[in-house]
User: Fold these one by one.
Assistant:
Number 1:
Amino acid sequence: MDVAEEGSETGVEREEEEPRIGVYVCHCGLNIAGSVDVEAVSAYAAGLPGVVLSKDYRYSCSDPGQEMMKEDIQKHALNRLVVASCSPRLHEPTFRAMAEEAGMNRYLVEMANIREHCSWVHLYDKEGGTEKAKELVRMAVAKARLLEAQVEKKVPVLRKTAVIGAGVAGIQAALDLADSGYKVHLIEKDVSIGGRMAQIDKTFPTMDCSICILAPKMSEVGRHPNVEVLTCAEVKSVSGYVGNFVITIKKKARFVNKNCTACGDCSTACPVAVPNEFDLGLASRKAIYTPFAQAVPSTYAVDIVTCLNDGPVLACEKCIEACDVEDCIDFNARDETIDLEVGTIIVATGASTFDPKVLEEYGYGKYPNVLTTLEFERLINAGGPSGGHLIRPSDLEPPKNVAFIQCIGSRTEKDGNPYCSNICCMETIKDALLIKEHWPDTEIDVYYMDIRAFGKGFEDLYKRARSLGVRFIRGIPAEALHLEGDDVRLIGENTLLSEIYDEEYDMVILSVGIEPREDSEVVQRLFNLSKTADGFFMESHPKLLPVDTPTKGVFLAGCAESPKDIKDSVTQACAAASRANILMAKGEVTVEAITPMYVEDNCNGCGLCVKVCPYNAIELIGKKPNQKIKIIEAACTGCGTCGAECKFEGLIMRHFTDEQIVAQIDGALDENPEGKILAFCCNWCSYAGADFAGVSRMQYPSNVRIIKTMCSGRVSENFVRRGFEKRAGAVLVSGCHLQDCHYINANYQTKKRVEKLWKEMEKLGLDTNRLQLDWFTAAEGQKFADKIGEMKEIVEKVDPKEIDKAAETFKPKKKKRKQ
Amino acid sequence: MSEEGEPKLVNPEFTKEVIKRGADTITLCFQCATCTGGCPSGRITAFRTRKLMRRVQLGFKEDVLPSDELWLCTTCMTCDERCPRGVKITDIIMTLRNMAVEEGHMAEAHKRTAGMLIKTGHAIPMGDKFRELRKTLKLDEVPPTVLCDPKLYEDVVKIMKATEFDKLIGERIDG
């Protein structure tokens, strides 16, 4: 919990040592060397000012590579390091740790991203790629010369967790953490925990009874001394940062208190019947109800929207009259707002199923005997509306033949989702087996395109279904026709025979896919998450950080991250719990030393920084005219919006100083600036989006030079002016989409500043088209690539006179005060 | 069309050429067969839309361009509507027909219709039955098209010559 020592703070007592920079250009096998002449880049770097050593190396991140750098640091007395390799989002921590082991401060390492931002996106332009790599190194060296050592602060991590969503993933994560000794708040918006797994009849591939294996976990978590289960509860806001979050919960009134014995007399007496959501509307429930027998808590709840009573005004007292327990039902109950302080958060908010109504050719919602697989689960479930007897909704008769249609709303470019939903093949096979086990004479046809039985024990189950006579027919029906007696006729092509089939069924079950919940955008904003193109929450790294999110201290579990079965959900929940455990067991976490440094002498107390800070981390102190500011370090996340706003050099952003960024700009525009696009990208979204373009090998023109800031809010108007002064062909300012800023709303300041610049340019008669503002998520690699392509055209068309004019206009009028 | 069992001549250039002519969605097809299943023509003929798409993907040019079934599509676009992959099936079939005609393959019925256009300026001939029908509807016996003015027909012929429509279908226009 130590704050940086006074003397070591940047700029205060700067050590005036000559920079001795070591540059390492990585081949990354052929990943970089395949389309960039790494030797030429290394030779070029050797001639840059401040560079005393430059090498190229096959795999810089390997142990021998790191050992070599450590030795070089000692042998050549290096005091700065530039590693030109992959994205700093991947290996910056690796090289920082290595430098530290060699006795160099971790903030004296700078990376040039010549893989994701260069070799992978210019695969067929070796000349342009090599040229760009050289300049990226030059920019990094320019910044490295100005880097300063920093001391990281440590903040305590509260040993408490909030788990959002109490399906099987949330329950598992809560149990693991509670068993490890942490306090867990398990937050569920429905009246009972259990989630989707509680609705399902059996699980594949072992055919376990779903509720039989879930119910013990539900009651265990319900009575665990370390777990507080909050049902009817929704997250309203989240503030704070890793280790110290504050979550505000709205807990809706249940109107029945803990004295409830779950006898059900109230429900029997209640005159209001509405469709039961738990049974997907296949049966009804009362206004006072419990969704299913094993519900936790077992306490009944009043659905006040459908109840005849409106709060304390009683129009009907039938439930109160029927209840034997005193003061059990209380219509005076009120919604509560609860603040929870936690150190870590696990998001396990689950997913929805695809609604096949849009696929009109299958008649779902119109033909009574066309159902979804989730509805089927309720129909075959002993706890369901038919008591586990498979019957047709139209006449309550058992069907003699049943058809399943696969890939409903999955793998489609039109109505539905483009991805494979992972579970539907096995769910159908399991469902077919369930029918065969109970009613062996039922004929079952499964219409499919590909059967994906990839998991442990899956192929066995597939084989079993075939051996029991389930017919698998390759070729999806083109249409379902409604027949007299509510039978359904399916017409399509058996592709393996090239013959048309035309069959009649008593019941047709649509194997629907999984999709993100409708409210997932709300969850995304609350916890500052990103989404992949499929709409599910994005992990920090698809391979190596599969349950972390870009927000430190927030982890993912279950179908909120992607469609998965119960086993995978539980596995991921254990992983998320383990990741949260690591933070909490340690009890403290280091935060990056990227907060602003206050230069009191320059501050005139204007308070602009206070206004733009998204975290209220700056306070005004004293009275005018001697007003000054105070920075609350613990609340600051280092977005740099204050630094960009300050006109008086009163705030210096550690590790992203004006000087350093200007050095990068100048480095980018030293040669042929007219042909260049100068791009500012934020660490979380647009820089990550450019990384994504690289990983996906999306090709774009090589004339762009990217400068990374933590937030687009750091991009000061002066950086843009500097770019034009240095004759950049075009400038791109980019960040997260407006609602998705990683720093709450700092990118609104970005927008404001760019709009101001546009106005200024217009007034000065300059071409505003040369300054572009755009937003990219971390998954919008293609959008980023397209934008660069579009901007290349702007650069090619710009009149040289226009460049002269802008350069002249933006030349600083008078020399600014030097520190 | 080659017999079953006979080796197919794979021609990857054919697939590329079809894609170059705007059929880039062909690569998306994963043979689910909703196209065949919904095809009103396929229910009464041997036409299998899915198979046609597969042959194009694999480059079986000789199975596609000279085939009779290429002309069995009525361009009703049901397959386009149902295709989950967004393959522009009908457009692809039209592209294939253009390519087939360029190589001298054209269904007899289509050829006759096209020939009628050259001869009369109308795809559908104006027989006595039509004249009678028009009379009963109190319409002019001859519709206000090329039929009512020989000069208009000459213009249509000019267009057909300029676009080499006549050469395309193997019918010469005199003069």
Number 2:
Amino acid sequence: MKSLFCRRSAAAQWLAALVLLPALFVSGVTPALAVGEEIFQVQQGFKLVPAIIMVALLCIYIGVGFLSKVSSTSGYWVAGQGIGKWGNGAAIASDWMSAASFMGVAGLLYLKGWFGLGYIIGWTGGYVLLLCLIAAQLRRFGKYTIPEFLGDRFNSNGVRLIAAGVTVLIAITYATAQFKGIGLICGWIFGMSYTASVFFAAGVVCTYMLISGMTGVTRNQQIQYVVLISAFLIPLWLLMRKAGGTGLLPQLEYGSIISDLMSGKTAAGQLDPAATARLRDTYLPWGQGDFYHFIALVFTLMVGTAGLPHIMIRFYTVKNEDVARRSVLWGLFFIGLLYWSSPVYAAMGQFWNPGGGKMVADVIILSAPERAGLGSTFIGYLASGALAAGLSTVAGLLVAGASAIAHDWYATIYRPTCTDRQALRVGRIFTALLCAVVIIFALNPPALIAQIVAMAFAIAGNTIFPAVVLGIWYSGSNKYGTLAGMIFGLGMTLLAMLGWIFKIPMFSGDGILPATSSALIVCPLVFLINILVSKAMQDKLDKESSRRGDNILRKMHNLPGYIEEQQAPGKSATAY
Amino acid sequence: MTEEKPPIYINFFKPSTAAIRAEVSIARCVLLFWFFLSYAIPGLIWLAGQGDPRGMGESFITHARFLGFPLHYWLLAQGCTLGYILLCKLYCELWDRKLRQQDKEAKR
């Protein structure tokens, strides 16, 4: 996958041209649209200092990758065998950090108060699930993509195809959320309307992919983590001082601000009784959603985290099982630093701007410091951090999605005889197509950033998670059961998402099956369908499938009798 | 591929060999705590809040203060996350212990 990233400059070139032309057109004539009204909640106009910081930070971000490429020739992970648990942990955290973590979580916490904490425990607790059920066994299997694992374990191209399709869907959904974030940031820095800034953001994404493609940037995630987390943490200290704290440890100090908010004390003084009651309810457990919705959200985000293809892939690439385990520990710690800080931004937002509502939620990390008078330098630094996080996530997602198509469908199923060159070209074409699809969705985003991301997690949790867990832990699971389960899971998740977009009450935020939290009901059903259908079809299973499944299970559980599988030459996933 | 091996049987709830049993018992232990953090704590807050006539879940947990935070807020915002990190640590420790035991048995 990495080399698709490196060799794709041609595709990125026409992509850039394709996208920048309408961007130039639109930015000239765009009227103010209803979508992306968040932009009007922050200060308007072009901001020179943040623009300079943004360019500088992106240069550092890409430059670091370029420098580390010079020192390591045979690929980042292979060359970086000296990197231990800390480095790997930082890499996991850096991969995880996106516009959703930077902007989305703070926005949700601002809007939903206590209920929004479900996002934090969902996105951290999922790692425990991943560690206990999947990480070690998947590391022993040792191949590169999730479709590849599922396709091999169940000896079925159908399963492989659905898994590849799901990877693409997740990439599109996840990237849409990132695009919204990047668009909002670009809108703030350059003072554009939302539509214009989405196209502008697409241009930035393409330029980023073009530059990193031409120079063959390998991501140095350790340093990039430091860049991102410092951008997120440093403004916080100053923000806390502005709010009257000592600013020594904002993550602990904001507790008293939350307590004050519950009794109506904000920067503007004591709120009137009605507003106080509203604010107090936001921070009470069930003020913004009931127990069922909270648990459903937490469960969905957890199984989604454990089922996300691009997170699981981290375990193939580490040196050994021991490092794999410990890097989850450190990765979670580094992610924890981010999530201990997001609620501080949300609390600051409430403190300076109580009752700003949905319009301000996704830009709260910009709006709160603005209201506090933090100065554009620090806000620019923060915004640039969010932008860098979003950009690298989008680039990674588009490449992962395209390589799922090129590798798992085109080169494995559709035309097994194709050359690497042909597969590469297909990969490039699909990167461009995916980018175009994402832009269309991002122009009219269906929900808040974190909510869109949660939908991507619902897809992963309802399809990939059950298939992988049963693939590892239940020898009776076979291709029929897995196919049935994945199709059902995917269908239900998509139904819920469509229902959300078309505002059908049952699938909305407080319906029975919200698109963001559908897994509490759907995921166990998928497990059940997988097991029942597998049992029913056990007699129909061909010999080759059961032999291959058995062989892979032996490998994953360190059991004797594993026979090395023959690999078709030149078909490794790394080639794309 | 010529000889026929009897297919192995793997089931998380009925581990068939000693090695799998060891791995499953570690996973079960950690998942138990994971369940407690993720679902029992919100469950406790829910149960405690049953007395609130407005259905907002006000209770002694929301009235209590911890490090300046309302307790129900701290438990989820920081307590759970901290707990998950410790659980990962616990998993690593248990796994190391398992490896040491296996080494000992191999030497014997």
Number 3:
Amino acid sequence: MPPLQVRQASLLSQLFDLWFPATADGPAASELDVIPFVLDRLASPWGAGLDRYLGEPFEPETAGFVRQGRESPAQVIADGLGIVETFLAEHGVPAVSDLDQPLRQRLVEGLRAGALGHGSAEFFWTARQLLLEGLFGLPGSGPPRPGALWLSSSSKREG
Amino acid sequence: MTESFDAIVAGYGWAGALVADQLAGAGYSVLVLERGEATPPSASGWYDREPERDGRRWRWQRTARDTVTLRHTPARRALPLRTLEVFGSGEGTGGSGVLWGGTSTRFHPDAFRPATVHGGRVREPANFDLLDWAVGYDQLEPYYARFEGILGVGGEPDPHPFAGWRSGPLPCAPPKDDDGLRLVRSAAAELGYHPHTVPAALLDADHVNTLGVGRSPDPLRGTSIATPLNTVHPHAERTGRVTIRTGAKVRRVTHDGGHARGILYSTPAGDRSAAAEVVVLATWTLQNTRLLLLSGIGEPYDHEAGTGVVGRGYAGHLSIPTTGYFDRQLSLPRAQASIGFVDSEPAGDSVGGAFHMTPSLGPLDPWESLTVPSETPAWGAGWKDALVARHGTKLSDVAISEALPSPRRFLDLDPRYVDADGDPLLRITFDWTENERRLVDRHGAVSRRVLAAAGASLMETTAPAFPYDVTRYQNTHLVGGARLGDDPGHSVVDPWLRSWQLRNVWVVGASAFPSASAPPPTLTAGALALRAADDIVAYLSGRPR
């Protein structure tokens, strides 16, 4: 079973394009092949949470400590997209791109601060990490991703 | 039937590979038990472009099976590190030796006398647990030289003022400075420091080491890096006396009557055992200590009573990175190298100097280019524009300073959490102290001064979070827990890394360090491993020292 429904994948792609939009410097996240990469990651053992230590007991979160919750990264993303859907419904718009700038700000900063409900901050940081990996590749492994090639070609650095 | 060998070596990182090779070369049969998989060969030593397997970080310790717990103080309940972020121990043949950066700096002679050097300066002596090494620089120098020959260390021919004496020059020339490194070298010199190319197992030309094993630069990075697999392992294999068993996780040293009999280890097919005349633990700092505790070797440290030795003296490094942003593009380096300098001037109330190093900005890993000034928006067009504008305009000076041993920093077994075999996890009790706050202030300021003198227009120090934050990488320079010494009442192993309690067990690696000094630990850990191997050969040959 895919880690996300088509509707959820579309919503995640909209969010990624909000964070990494098309500009004069180059394309948006969705044009850099991010979503297929992220879906593969969420379907991997990492996405399923199988490379984490899952020994009992699970304790409440502690600041400055690695995540203690039982949920897999795929579940964190699915739950967080539910929060985003609720936000859109509350403001009567079908897509992230239909939000005006103040509401976009409220959505992203609300997620980041954990102010949009349980799991919203965890969703923000997990999704942001996935966006970076989708753009630039996993730190220190795998072939260069389209975002990395774009960044190198955009730079005026001498070889 | 239980298999039998002259020696069993647990772990196949630098320490395990060096000992296994030396014992096999002396004619002894060696069984190596490695919990991870066989790492594929890489002539250049770089693995960063290996396809990923099973999710992220496949060469790091698999926390799903085995991890550690951590608490900041003894009064707190420890929580498991469900993923490893703050440090990254290796797994598989080559161990952390296929993850390191190649820095191969010797410790200063004074580093072996921390109690003597620092003892009179500490403001609150009860907060420190300083122990002189019982091995001095002079005794270790021949082993430093041997390991440098195996690594093929490149560096400048003349030692800087903070280097100890040498019996011979470094075996190789260093890579040439690139644009950024020239700027830092010049700036540090202007400010009165003694900048030098950091000795490193990084070479920009083909090289054959003292064991007759060759390696070649990676065409994209322009350098090769020494790993156990392209320096020691081919030599060990040629002896035909080393059996490497992967997927074999050591659970206990079996012993009776004051003598080790062998090893109990787990495999996917169940538990197995093997017998040997000699057992060598070379499973990195944390696992070495844990195996001693699980096996009942040595008296566990009791921080309240101040008794016991196993788990005592856990220490390490404090990494303080400062990024300097320049108003122009720096040219791409053609090879990997670092410029370093030492700042050992006593300052205020802080105890401990720092080893500063600025590495080449790698051309291959875009993550190295994602750092942007802290005031940059975290998302949107502003963030994206900054990524482009700042790409290739940054240098980072990392000050590595010493987190000195303290009675409040120690290792023991966790009472609640267990690994996949049902064995208790190791519990770390650790937090930063006021001394480390002072070191951050001092050495961050030094880095900013140097980068400003190099021409950076904006400097930002990323201070480690207080209390100790395990969500961000710090370093993997963890030491202690099975400290060496000349008194069984204060140490776990003798100056040859031989267990005081079981005289046919050696505990090899940075677990034996009584303190961390400032340079990265690998060169010193390898030198101690070669010295321990000499001791083991003497024992097996019936000619103990």
Number 4:
Amino acid sequence: MSHQSRERRRAVGLALPLLLFIVVTFVAPLAAMLVRSIHDPAVVDALPETISALEGWDGQGLPPEEAFAAMARELVDARADRSLGKVASALNRVQGGLRSVVSRSARSLEGVSEGPWREAMAGVHEAWSDPTTWHAVLAAGQRFTLRHYLGALDMRRLPDGSLARQPEDRRIYLPLLWRTLAVSASIAVICLVLGYPLAHLIAISPPGRANLLLALVLVPFWTSLLVRTTAWIVLLQRQGVVNDLLAAIGLVGEDGRLALIYNMTGTVVAMTHVLLPFMVLPLYSVMHGIPPQYMRAASSLGARPAQAFARVYWPLTLPGVGAGTLLVFILAIGYYITPALVGGSSGQLISNMVAYHMQTSLNWGLAAALGGIMLAGVLALYVLYDRLVGVERLGLG
Amino acid sequence: MGPSAFARLLRPGQLGRAAYVAYCVAVLIFLFAPILVIVPLSFNAEPYFTFTEGMLRLDPEAYSLRWYREIVENEVWRRSLVNSLIIGVSATVLATALGTLAALGLASPAMPARRFVTGLLISPMITPVIISATGMFFFYSRIGLGQTYLGLILAHATLGIPFVVITVTAALAGYDRNLNRAAASLGASPFAVVRRVQLPLIAPGVISGALFAFATSFDEVVVVLFMAGVEQRTIPRQMWAGIREQISPAILAVATFLVVFAVLLLAVVAWLRKRGGG
């Protein structure tokens, strides 16, 4: 065996345990989420014969008698083994109102033992005489489906199969997605405006003072995110330190205290605080490497300070500006904890919607689809970051 | 202070420089404000989140250790500290061992697909935690790891791995590969080369990475929210509950502990860096 291939096997052998580990603990979970976003067996598992009867239906008028018979039988069965709630929720997500139709029908059909089922079900609830109900059942019964993605993009499928956007007042996710991007971009710009001069000051300070200033950036960076978020609640709430201070110096009256938290202001302030070190550190590391002679040379050649900055210093710091801005932007897009704790109802971002559907509405398919869309966006930015900066240079301080 | 482009950019002379420095000081105060406010308020004798008149007069009566007593005596907080330590230490050991080995492999010029592999290993750091937690919730509960310590340890190790890979890779960047050849020519086995030569030299980087991994686990709340049962509640999870339900100044006492912890970690990392790692 040549030296080269032995070295290669050694390198692969060292990296392999971690690769396998990451595949199991990280890649497989993400894959499971993506599968969940297109795979929804709840309805077809509970109503298999109904769905197979509906698949033979031409879609015109009402479905055949056998679909009614299967539906009646399977609803009663589902109620008996307590899986009806899950089916009812799944159907209700495709067409609002179906939850109560299904639960009422299952209860009433219990005593009915023979058909004709079409009439029996129509007697139980008039929704069963409406073809759109059956179209909804058939749609919800698809084992593999894109409807969670359609939902996440505020779109819906019309009865004739074409796609349409939700009416303006029912669009939730796209506006939230745009808001998340806009807020993240603003935070990245604010961090740049705050962080650039500070990084420069640290870079030109003598070593002793530079270390002290760096420590002032790094202590908050290392401090628990929850601690920092708690601190902002303490600082910004109505009876908090900032409002007390403003009231004490008479800038606001006792009844005019500012709403600085539990809204978008709270989200932006706290997130800027959390993300600022991610801007300062890469900027500092680039500025640290710029020899001071460059600026002296520029001014001795007659450049005014503004010119020297614009033509010499700023271009040299662009790699740091790009790295910091992109990193802050990427991290901001996925922020969950800070908006959840200090954002109130108006300061929520797209991550909070994922958490809402995971924990409260239990619409896991939709949560997974929203997660899939976010993942695609963040991965694209990550690849861009790798091209521009190199992932192994992610600044840690 | 050296010649400052910014100072002269604003206005020639001292005034511009003063404004520039004042701006930077304001940014530093913004960065440090949370710590400046949390630590003194945790000694508040009253159950308020703002400075009482007594505190401003520096009246000793206005300060007390009552919130510290409360958390030390509270079974729930003690339990969550134990959980945080169990999960954090186990996850750190896993992440450090696997991450260091992988970084050694990635540092070799013979490593195939290095860029892709590095990108993959670092991706848990950049992937929004809410997404990782969602996927882990689905996958770990399916394979029977939902609401278990093992599941949380694996999840936290995954989130800590990028830090280990990055710091060890950085430490290896300054490593002279001729040392490997020298050791091998003196009869050292490949294993002995790593253990006796390479590891001791990059130890500061490895320890920095381990501290980052531990800090990550010690502060992680989203995965815990999604995957932990009541039994596995950690400190951040307990703080989360405290903030959402009803903040008591006891939370500020916990927060002060965590600030002190952060300062200690940072000091160790800075000391290690001076010794040539990370």
